[in-house]
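User: Predict the structure for this protein chain, please.
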Amino acid sequence: MQGLGWILTIVIGGLAGWLAGKLMDVRFGILMNIVLGIVGSVVANAVLAQFHISVAGGALGYLITGFLGASLLLFVVKLVRR
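Assistant: Here is the predicted structure, written as structure tokens:
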């Protein structure tokens, strides 16, 4: 997320985590969903960068990528916590 500032990156990652938590019906608490959203967003962007895929669309593109990364991360955490 080099194109955005740190604060906007955290806000977008948090929003992505909150949305992913709502979609996946995960009840870890809003703070945990936001943290997982931020981490998932960073991981998804790092994986895409390894495949030389750039995210277009500014903040909306990062929100979509972060949402996908956060959903994947929430799914994995949900499996581990069983």
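The longest helix spans residues 58-80.
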